[in-house]
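for the recovery benchmark. tokens below, seq after
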């Protein structure tokens, strides 16, 4: 038995409601809810270290746990492999290692599992991209993004989760974009789009792409479209997160950033500005089609002609063509992640458990409020709820459920190519 298997057998010390029975669930106002799905818990683990949102690859679940990468079997919970990446953490004077080290959620591709590591979330350090074997976790190749003081070629730490586009891996560094060849990690291009270093360094959400472009979501309050073949900017559009203010004859520039990944939908790209507004822009040229005030957005998803937004205030349903608000479910702490299944939204409240919202009557049943859920990962009819068991003690956890039917979001988003 491996050491991680011994560690994860710590008790959860919380009660779990395993089955939501038809006709017995009640909504927020006490009326019966029309929830029809019955998630059945298969297994649960507690890990020493905070759990990031994992990625699913068939029946294999790969995620990050503190400064480790692990892979488990989705059906049984048995550990397939684990890798300790703490050797990429360097000692920096005056920097708390627990606050500076950043290990992004893995991206699974045919050539392996790609993880990005940066030793300083401000990008003032060297960053690494590793490709690990999907079966064993062994390193297949490694790319180093070196910190160079000054000049347009400064790269530094990794600032976004890697994105897979055709045969290349694209990610944000301290000064621009870098593309690697997926097969061997060789650099294809590196494009600085802030050569003077005048823009604050922030972590970005994972970009999304289509056949022609790669889209970043309101980075510094500006939405970008890049050509993934050579990295040049196709278009950019400021949002309300990018503002100017005149103070004593001096123009101050103010920025926000969003950790919500953009959504490619039909002929549109949907982005959030890091404040309270989401925007629909024409994917080809960035022209503004509509905007809607929903509050700070955590996640975007589309089902048919409807757009669903998880925000700090709750779950919103919008008309994707016009941006008109059709319905919403407001809840304290908001909705951080969700998947849609058979007219139900399986949702996670920000640091406050998870539950199911009926999309017929918009009533909810909340499950396991003591689990601080950070995300929901699904593949087929298996669903993984990941989050914190005890933040103060740095304990994270996974719970995997089987859901009758097929947990596939009927999204028109083409995803990454």
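predicted aa per position
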């Amino acid at each position: 038995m491996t050491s991680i298997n011994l560690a994860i057998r710590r008790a959860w010390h919380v009660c779990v409601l395993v089955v939501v029975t038809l006709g017995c669930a009640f909504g927020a106002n006490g009326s019966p809810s029309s929830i029809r799905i019955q998630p059945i818990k298969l297994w649960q683990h507690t890990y020493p270290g905070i759990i990031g949102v994992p990625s699913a690859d068939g029946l294999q679940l790969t995620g990050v746990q503190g400064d480790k990468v692990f892979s488990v079997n989705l059906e049984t919970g048995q550990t397939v492999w684990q890798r300790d990446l703490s050797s990429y953490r360097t000692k920096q004077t005056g920097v708390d290692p627990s606050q500076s080290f950043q290990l992004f959620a893995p991206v699974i591709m045919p050539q392996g599992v790609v993880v990005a590591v940066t030793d300083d979330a401000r990008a003032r350090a060297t960053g690494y991209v590793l490709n690990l074997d999907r079966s064993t976790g062994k390193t297949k190749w490694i790319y180093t993004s070196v910190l160079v003081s000054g000049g347009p070629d400064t790269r530094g730490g990794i600032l976004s989760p890697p994105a897979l586009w055709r045969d290349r891996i694209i990610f944000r560094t301290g000064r621009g974009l870098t593309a690697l060849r997926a097969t061997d990690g060789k650099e294809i291009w590196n494009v600085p789009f802030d050569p003077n270093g005048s823009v604050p360094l922030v972590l970005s959400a994972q970009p999304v792409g289509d056949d022609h472009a790669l889209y970043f979501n309101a980075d510094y309050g500006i939405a970008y479209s890049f050509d993934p073949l050579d990295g040049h900017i196709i278009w950019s559009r400021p949002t309300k997160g990018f503002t100017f203010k005149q103070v004593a004859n001096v123009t101050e520039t103010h920025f926000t950033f969003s950790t919500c990944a953009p959504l490619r939908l039909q002929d549109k790209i949907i982005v959030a500005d890091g404040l309270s507004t989401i925007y629909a822009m024409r994917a080809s040229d960035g022209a503004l089609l509509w905007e809607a005030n929903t509050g700070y957005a955590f996640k975007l998803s589309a089902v048919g002609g409807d757009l669903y937004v998880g925000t700090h205030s709750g779950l919103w349903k919008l008309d994707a063509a016009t941006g008109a608000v059709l319905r919403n479910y407001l809840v304290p702490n908001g909705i951080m992640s969700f998947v849609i299944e058979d007219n139900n939204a399986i949702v996670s409240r920000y640091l406050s458990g998870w539950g199911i919202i009926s999309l017929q009557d918009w009533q909810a049943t909340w499950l396991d409020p003591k689990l601080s859920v950070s995300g929901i990962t699904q593949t087929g009819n298996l669903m993984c709820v990941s989050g914190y068991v005890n933040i103060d003690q740095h304990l994270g956890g996974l719970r995997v459920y089987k859901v009758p039917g097929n947990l596939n979001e009927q999204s028109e988003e083409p995803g990454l190519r």
